[in-house]
Amino acid sequence: MSRFQVKKVAVLGAGVMGAQIAAHLVNVKVPVVLFDLPAKEGPKNGIVTKAVEGLKKLKPSPLGVADDAALIQQANYEEHMHLLKECDLVIEAIAERMDWKLDLYTKIAPHVAKHAILASNTSGLSITKLSEVLPESIKPRFCGIHFFNPPRYMTLVELINTPTTQPEVLDQLEAFVTSGLGKGVVRAHDTPNFVANRVGIAGMLSTMKEVENFGLTYDVVDDLTGKKLGRASSGTFRTADVVGLDTMAHVIKTLQDNLSLETDPFYESFGTPAVLKKLLELGNLGQKTKAGFFKKVGRDVMRFELESEEYVPAGQKADEVYARMLKKPAAERLRLLRNAEGAPGQFLWAILRNSFHYAAVHLGTIADNARDVDQAMRWGFGMKQGPFELWQEAGWLEVAKMIQEDIDAGKALCKAPLPEWVFKGPVADAGGVHTAQGSWSASQNKFVPRRQLPVYERQIFPEALLGETSLPDWRIAGTTIAESKALRTWTLDGQVLIASIKNKMHAISPEVMEGLAEAVELAEREYDGMVIWSGDAPFSVGADLEATMPAFAVGGPDAVESIEQELQNLMLRIRYAQVPVVAAIHGMALGGGCELAVYSAKRVAHMESYIGLVEVGVGLVPGAGGLTYIARRAAENMAASTSKDILPFLTEGFTAAAMAKVGTSALESRKLGYLLDSDVIVPHKDELLFVAINEAKSMAASGWRAPHKRLFPVAGRSGLATIKAQLVNMRDGGFISAYDFKIGAMIAEVVCGGDVDAGSMVSEEYLLTLERKAFCHLIAQPKTHERILGMLSTGKPVRN
Ligand code: NAD
After folding, report:
1. Is the C-beta atom of 37 inside 6 A of ligand 1?
2. Would the N or C end of the chain have less CB density within 10 A of its end CB?
3. C-beta of 93 in contact with ligand 1 (< 6 A)
4. Mutation pick for ligand 1 pocket among 12, 16, 127 (CB with most ligand atoms within 8 Å)
5. Residue 483: what pLDDT?
6. 479-784: same fold as 9-188?
7. Does pLDDT of 672 surpass 80?
8. Which contiguous run of DSSP H or E holds residue 300?
9. What's the gap between Cα 650 and its chain centre?
10. Protein residue with least CA distance to atom 1, ligand 1
11. Looking at per-residue confidence, does 550 or 39 come out higher?
12. CB of 95 shorter than 6 A to ligand 1
């Protein structure tokens, strides 16, 4: 296969999706040109310019760093068609109208490069019909590329071929979308709304119907169908409000227009629900119009009531008994719900049954196999498990019988029986659709393995579905060298030692510290390098406060000082280890987690890494070397410049720590100084370990040695005075509390090196002592205790 490289992408359409797709391309360092229609008035790029400006304000942010919006090249179809020639991939994301898309294709076809892939982001139009207008030369390189909103955060991208798409083209695109963009690819058949929206919207409609059947209210339903059910925490109706009820109506209409009772036996349940019709009529489109199923009035949440057409107080939760049922093992859970006396239990069983029924009936037509359906629901709808996984977990045949009984009793959405493969043959024998041989393909009548593209070799531990028992489990994979309750040290290849924290949120407890120190020791003796990687996010939320507080209660500040000293020693041990230690970061790396990262020789960070020193939030200062790191980095940055004044290099790091700033992406974390330019940012979370191991090996292979221990200059008392003056202004202006001022001044004192002359040369140990003393002073303060207790009980910072 010839090498397909995406050097530049064109995105056509700067609407909700196009602009955000362009932003994500910038995030992953792919040059992008964003097109839209020429503006009728003012500069011709007006529409695109406005969209790009809008990206900076959108929440959650589509950009890793807002200023990077400037990297999106702006274009319009009147002046810039020639730019298309430079692009290896052209993604069309204009309004969902077949005629408009076809017109545009005719217009752009002569300008698309011969080797380029052209792909449509349509949510549900026929990809094959779209391809028909294209010249024969482009048809083999045309397909569907369906992103989910918001594209930076949603994992799923569905790729859809036409009968004329060259298979190689889809493989090339899958490799780019997976490794380059960090997405999870599902291959969908060219059927209306493809896989995720077909199953997901049918699920939403079924939920709305059952809500009416069982006479439940939206607040109770959202309480039941959110996190407790293993789904997105916004539940059913708040999700609809967030998506926009007009958008939802649009997707429902695609189902209504493109399906019929012949092609979908559930068709009759696809009618637009009366309440949705009413809300659309009233112009209550959800979050964007500030009213939908829910509406916020002051601090109160109200819910819409169809009968009265009024908003009434919401906030009701389901009876606790259902939450308890939902915590039971799958088989028991489904049985309990089905046999429940109360409407909420029966409702939950009904929506789950409908989802199993729908997925089974359609598996043969909408997707190649059951894995694609379950992955689509996980990645596109934020479900913890797809429908087939849950069904299989609960006992395949038992559940199948319950579904069929309900169908026969007229309780299901339609009379279509479950397909034969459910009850007889390989699936029934295996007890489900996901097996060690692969997942069930109803169209091919066999289990099919995962696609073996070279790009997947980079995922050592791909996200496995329930039942995919042939996939390795990282918790037990490789050779275990040492294992405690808190940490496992292991290796895959005998060359690189991997340390995985097992604590909740990967908090750094004394046991973790001990284990990591031993791991470094071992790595130096027997390995080329070491990687700190703990599987799922977060990387680490920092020192285990719950473990530290009892030490304080019993032994006072002295006991805490010795814990801090050990933590600092660990950081130094890692920094000066004789082998490279690589931190593989995904999600939060906070406080001690951030320190662990910055004291490592290198960081390999997933694009969604949120790094910061947050100790101020709990009334402390970083105590394990975070401040010493900030001072040292400032000195290093100054040394790399022609300046002799350290203060400008210190300000950013000081502010980040004093304001407990956390990067909202790896890119922003780098701006805060917690990642270096030489660190690696990885788009796909499942490639993190692969990249980290390879970094460790290549560092070792290129003769890596630990840095010299050297003295470095600090800003001293004059720097301290300058920073303090600013803090005084902030306090007197009411921007920070008196206690924030106190902590800020202590941070300033450490990063400036205390009461010494500007430019004095200090050692890391000297600063670490200052840092430790500041930490131990603060931990004895009542206001700090208030902050710690507040954080431990509510998870939110207390400002006192
Ligand atoms: P949008 O309405 O926000 O943007 C559409 C863009 O198309 C606008 O910038 C508009 O100027 C441009 N446009 C309109 N008519 C045009 C024409 N005749 N020729 C060229 N450009 C034209 O739409 P969107 O929500 O970004 O959707 C774009 C595509 O992505 C659609 O196919 C939609 O189905 C699909 N999609 C949307 C979502 C979503 O959640 N919004 C999710 C996945 C896929």
Report:
1. yes
2. N
3. yes
4. 16
5. 98
6. no
7. yes
8. strand 300-305
9. 32
10. 15
11. 39
12. yes
- In the chain the first and final C-alpha atoms are separated, in Å, by 63
Greatest mean pLDDT among 467-476, 540-549, 625-634 = 625-634
Closest approach atom of ligand 1 to CA 122: 32
**What local confidence, expressed as pLDDT, does residue 474 receive?**
96
Return the closest-CA partner of residue 392 out of 431, 334, 450: 431
Taking domain 196-382, whether its CATH number is 1.10.10.10 is answered by: no
* Closest residue to atom 3 of ligand 1, CA basis: 15
The CATH topology of domain 479-784 is 2-enoyl-CoA Hydratase; Chain A, domain 1 (3.90.226)
Question: Is the beta carbon of 13 within 6 A of some atom in ligand 1?
Answer: yes
Q: Is the C-beta atom of 21 inside 6 A of ligand 1? A: no
Please report the pLDDT score of residue 477 as a whole number: 97
List pLDDT tens digits, range 236-283. 999 999 889 998 898 899 889 999 999 999 999 989 999 999 999 999
Give yes or no for residue 1 having a pLDDT over 60. no
Ligand 1, residue 104: give the atom nearest the CA: 19
Rg (CA), the chain: 28
Cα of 159 vs centre of ligand 1, distance in Å, is: 18
DSSP for 39-66, please give it: PSSSSTTHHHHHHHHHHHH-SS-SSSSG
Question: Ligand 1: does its nearest atom lie under 6 Å from the Cβ of 34?
Answer: no
Pocket flag, ligand 1, residue 18 (CB < 6 Å): yes
- What pLDDT does 453 receive? 97
CATH number of 9-188: 3.40.50.720
12: Cα within 13 Å, side-chain hemisphere:
30
Instruction: Please work out whether the CB of residue 107 comes within 6 Å of at least one atom of ligand 1.
Output: no
Q: What does pLDDT average to over the chain?
A: 96
Please determine, for residue 326, whether its predicted confidence score (pLDDT) is greater than 70: yes
Q: What is the mean predicted confidence (pLDDT) over 694-707?
A: 98
Of 16, 11, 48, 5, nearest in space to 26 by CA = 11
| All structural domains of the chain with their residue ranges | 9-188, 196-382, 479-784
- Does residue 360 surpass a pLDDT of 90? yes
> Is residue 2 scored above 70 in pLDDT?
no
- 637 φ/ψ angles, rounded to the nearest 5 degrees: -65, -35
**If you measure from the C-alpha of residue 96 to the centroid of ligand 1, how many angstroms do you get, rounded to a whole number?**
6
Report how far ligand 1's centroid is from the alpha carbon of 611 (Å).
Answer: 34
What's the whole-model pTM score? 0.95
Backbone angles phi, psi at 104, to 5 degrees: -65, -40
Q: Ligand 1 pocket, 100 CB below 6 A?
A: yes
Confidence at 545, pLDDT banded by 50, 70, 90: confident
**pLDDT above 90 for 194:** yes
**Alpha carbon distances (Å) from 454 to 74, 221, 398, 436:** 34, 44, 39, 20
* Residue 746 CB less than 6 A away from ligand 1: no
* Pair of tokens at residue 435: 């097996």
Could you tell me if the CB of 459 is within 6 A of ligand 1?
A: no
| Cα 98–chain centre separation | 32
> CA dist 343 to 210, 318, 333, 340, 390, Å?
10, 10, 15, 8, 22
Residue whose Cα lies nearest atom 7 of ligand 1: it is 94
pLDDT for position 614: 95
Tokens of 580: 């490279």
Measuring from atom 22 of ligand 1, which residue has the nearest CA? 94
Which residue from 465, 403, 396, 404 is spatially nearest to 431, judged by alpha carbons? 396
Q: How confident is the model at residue 683 (pLDDT cuts 50, 70, 90)?
A: very high
138 lines ligand 1 (CB under 6 A): no
91 Cα: distance to centroid of ligand 1 (angstroms): 12
Rounded Cα distance between 647 and 634, Å, is 8
Q: Which of the listed residues 123, 195, 245 should we mutate to test ligand 1's pocket, taking the one with most ligand atoms within 8 A of CB?
A: 123
pLDDT at 299 over 60: yes
Whether the CB-CB separation of 482 and 515 falls below 8 Å is answered with: yes
**DSSP state at residue 127:** H
- pLDDT the model gives residue 251: 85
